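Supplementary Methods, section 5.1.

A reviewer requested that the exact input to the structure prediction be made available. We therefore reproduce it here, unchanged from the version used in the analyses.
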Amino acid sequence: MSEAIAKTSPLLPIASLWHREVVRFLRQRSRVVGALGTPVVFWVLIGSGLRNSFKTSGDSGMNYMEYAFPGTLAMIVLFTAIFSMISVIEDRREGFLQAVLVSPAGRSAIVLGKVLGCSTLALVQATAFLLLAPLIGVSLSVSAVVMTVGVLIVVSVGLSGLGLLIAWPMDSTQGFHAVMNLVLLPMWLLSGAFFPASGASRWVGWVMIANPLTYGVSALRHAMYWGRPDGEAPMSFAVSLGVSIAFAVIMIQLSLWVVTKRK
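The structure derived from this sequence is encoded token-by-token as follows.
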């Protein structure tokens, strides 16, 4: 009966994989600490150190902890994607992934289940961190919270898709950590989360423009200060959100292609 349902509708395998990702994450407390605690420590230590030496380009009077807050939201999502997609390698090693691949569930259900599970975890943790915004003087209106959560969903899907795209062909967690250090962390550092593009060298500025996460961080700045002009966002909200949505769609499509290609 379950096989017939899986063949006719992908909802059951998607929901099952989503549920497994959430339960597995909550049972592994080290992953919760790593995905949420590390970005918060980065934010507190670096933000406190540069708080009085950072100057914005406008007259908003924004200190560094406030400037780095949207970037920390993006980092929480990025770390959750990293830790969640390592489970792909572990599932292959334990034989669970092979069992799923030979089940009636389609490859698209596998991709969507993993990505939705990872995105849910990222969204919950980032939203919890968002509640700390009033502590640094950022008053969030209801519309700002709604817009920020909406942008976080888009960024979470995109980074989760990227994590799956990187993790799927790999057979070792060491290789994934190497890619993380070489690609994913610099992707965050050069997204405008750590420093604005206006003060960077020319070639770094071009890299930041080409970085898709730059647009996600920019969209988060617009969303957090919805209706106010003091978000220090480098691009317009329409451009930032449009590129972020396009990135998420491309990552899902590429993940589907890789999962379908590799047996």
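The chain has one domain: 2-261. These observations are discussed further in the main text.
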